[in-house]
Amino acid sequence: MAAKLELARLSPTLGTESTLDLLDADGFKVAYGGWQQGIASGLTAAGNVTETIPLRVQGSSHNDLAAKIDMLDDKLRQAEWYFDNFTEKYSVWLRAKMENESNARQALIRRGSGRLGSSLLYPPAQPGNLIRGYTLSLERYPWWEATVEGMSGVIVSCSGGDAFLADVTGNIPARIGRLKIIRWDLSVTLAEVWLGFRSDRFGTASNFQSVWQCQDGTAGTDTSIGGSGSTTTFAGTTTMATRLTIELEDVTSNYTDQRGEFIVLLAAHVTNGTTTCHVRLKDGYSGASAANWRVQDRVRIHQQTSGYLFSLGTVKIPPMMHDRSTSAVFRKFALRIDAEQTAGTGYLVMDRLILIPFSEGALHIDGAAITNANNLYIETSADGIVSGWQWSGSEPSTTVTVEPLNYGLPIGVEPRVVFAGQTATTFYPTATASVSIQQYYPRWRTLRGSA
Predict the structure, then answer these.
(1) Residue 357 placed within a domain
(2) Which of 133, 196, 227, 319 has the fewest CB atoms below 10 angstroms from its CB?
């Protein structure tokens, strides 16, 4: 197997448009001493890497020598086109492979420059048609990527459903080139969705409990627990008070596998169209005093008589930084809902809390119209820009708002996706959706090998 070092101009949909070989085929050859590959520093905030490649450039004449340098200058110009113009479809990559490395890897080039190390007016350039000591400097993105791969879709419930994906190789979270969502069975149109990924990094992924049923919690002021969740009448007080507490041990016995950061969604409604409530989320340990609970902002539930998902904020489990608590402490972690009634006389009914993990990648999408015919696509470009679009009838629509959080595909064996969604007016717990990662790119810090 031959070694490879080349500049490749390519598009994820159109493939490779052209390449420039730096290992002899196009008149370029890495100079003695070779290319010493750069390595990214850090992970979450890794900066770009500067590569310095010493080259010899050989031509058959001075005009041929100029043509070869022009080819290199063209690639450097084309690399910047991708960043200068949003409509540019091609980007330029540094593609490399060791002689006995099974597969090539490639990194996106941001910009580049060249420097001559010898005069063009004296040997070996004149005569000899040789430029010795040409230094190519490239600023590239920190991670090496594989060529595109895909996964089959998984069916998930819109009420905090989850499914396992295929194994993800690499040692850096993969870039998700294209993710597709369609409504699966129930005849509703999904307008807002959340999804998050979870690997075994924080605990066994199969033991993660994404849904906390309100009927499993402990009733607070003016609240009763029943088969459909909790009901708060506000008969005793309409002012802000604790209405429900759910401890971690109420929903799972796999306490330490719940570690992580989460978006908390509340499925709730009021019982008549004149009622307005405010709810707020608190998190802490169930035996703690009031001063030791972390309090989120109030969220308004205004005349919402059908079930709806309200985003209450984010929580960390456990709440202390780098906490190494044992199961005995984890189990007493709790989520608490305070509520007040500010208008009307209706009750507040709370069905469930849904925890969307975001430490390893998550999305919140709003303004969609997802059906079994209108597909939603979320794309991540080579330079990391996340955008959403969908087909509306026979045309693409650009009305979708996408909020990514640490968005990427976690590495490892069968990472898990957790999903929630609703229409513009109603949360349907029995609705399902199909989530397909149509394109993803495994990534590495240094070398790829056989993966």
Answers:
(1) yes
(2) 227
Q: What are the pLDDT digits (tens) for 24-70?
A: 888 999 988 789 999 998 776 679 999 999 999 999 999 999 999 99
Residues 107 and 199 in one domain: no
Give the C-alpha separation, 389 to 398, whole Å: 5
User: What is the end-to-end Cα distance of the chain in Å, rounded?
Assistant: 16
Return d(Cα 316, Cα 398) in angstroms, integer: 33
Say if residues 418 and 433 touch (Cβ distance below 8 Å). Answer: no
Final residue of a structural domain among 142, 172, 194 = 142
Q: What is the pLDDT of residues 163-198, one digit of tens each?
A: 999 999 999 999 999 999 998 887 899 999 999 999
Write the CATH number for 265.
2.60.120.260
Report, in angstroms and rounded to the nearest whole number, the Rg of the chain calculated over CA atoms: 28
Identify whether the C-beta of residue 210 lies closer than 8 Å to the C-beta of residue 420.
no
- For residue 78, give the CATH number of its domain: 2.40.30
Looking at the structure, do residues 87 and 206 belong to the same domain, yes or no?
A: no
**Assigned domain for 149 exists:** no
169 and 66 within one domain: no
Domain count, the chain: 2
